[in-house]
């Protein structure tokens, strides 16, 4: 596809090396887009959407993942305005807008009037990283989930999602799709949990990974076991396995108001490096 001097175009497989080089300038912050780009090789049929590139004087200077999640990366105000203008030309197809807060704010300033009011706005989400060993002893009972665990794991995943997002992932006929996602993470070796018989008392998943970093999501402690310190030890176990077998840096972002989770992550050794924001529809 011809290179543009200034503006936005849809990226394809031939652009992969240039896109990866751009994302690798900040590989932890950009891990989600990096993961999606590597996984799909920028093939639209695998993306379920598009990746847009912003060119400044003929050089790729920013990208935006435009699929179920609208996620800008390495983008300044001019690129964000261009991405927002492109997104506003069509009906909304993304269920979330997520990324570093300054980027989401600038994107939404232009895009908001076209897409309307989000169902939920989470502007203050500390982005945390851990590059070294965890600061507390890993919980030895936390392990990778296996196929035989899915019957016990799936209800915990539904409970976590419903508590975190505010709606059930099974709503509107979504049960099969969500169960397939849980199974996919288990089969990939990205699901970790502590099991008490047929009940999950702690769980977390790796949602995205690159050679440089992985991003954790879905952290959950059974309500009847909260306050026992399971999250800090559980996260330490996840970090230990993930850093050894998936990627050298573990990251996540957490709702700013979730004080117990933030304390647990701090105890495990995570430190804030930036702030993310998420808009949900």
UniProtKB/TrEMBL annotation:
GO terms for molecular function: acyltransferase activity, transferring groups other than amino-acyl groups. InterPro entries: Acyl_CoA_acyltransferase (IPR016181), DUF4081 (IPR025289), GNAT_dom (IPR000182), UCP21603_acetyltransf (IPR016794). It comes from the Bacteria. Residues 140-281 form the N-acetyltransferase domain. This is N-acetyltransferase GCN5. The lineage of its organism: Bacteria, Bacillati, Actinomycetota, Actinomycetes, Propionibacteriales.
């Amino acid at each position: 596809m011809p290179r543009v001097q200034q503006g936005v175009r849809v990226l394809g497989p031939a652009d992969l090396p240039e896109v990866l080089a751009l994302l690798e300038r900040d590989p932890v912050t950009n891990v989600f887009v990096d993961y999606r780009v590597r996984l799909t090789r920028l093939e639209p049929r695998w993306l379920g959407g598009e990746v847009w590139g912003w060119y400044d004087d003929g050089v790729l200077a920013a990208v935006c993942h435009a699929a179920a999640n609208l996620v800008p990366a390495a983008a300044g105000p001019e690129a964000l305005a261009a991405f927002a203008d492109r997104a506003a030309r069509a009906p909304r197809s993304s269920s979330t807008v997520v990324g570093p807060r300054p980027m989401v704010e600038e994107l939404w300033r232009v895009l908001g009037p076209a897409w309307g009011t989000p169902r939920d706005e989470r502007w203050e989400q500390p982005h945390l990283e851990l590059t070294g060993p965890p600061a507390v002893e890993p919980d030895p009972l936390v392990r990778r989930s296996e196929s035989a665990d899915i019957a016990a794991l799936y209800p915990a995943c539904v409970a976590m999602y419903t508590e975190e997002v505010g709606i059930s992932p099974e709503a509107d006929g979504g049960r099969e799709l969500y169960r397939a996602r849980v199974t996919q993470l288990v089969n990939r070796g990205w699901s970790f949990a502590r099991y008490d018989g047929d009940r999950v008392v702690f769980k977390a998943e790796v949602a995205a990974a690159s050679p440089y970093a992985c991003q954790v999501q879905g952290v959950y402690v059974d309500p009847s076991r909260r306050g026992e310190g399971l999250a800090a030890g559980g996260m330490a176990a996840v970090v230990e396995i993930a850093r050894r077998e998936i990627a050298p840096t573990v990251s996540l972002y957490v709702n700013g108001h979730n004080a117990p989770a933030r304390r647990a992550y701090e105890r495990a050794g995570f430190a804030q490096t930036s702030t993310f924001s998420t808009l949900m529809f």
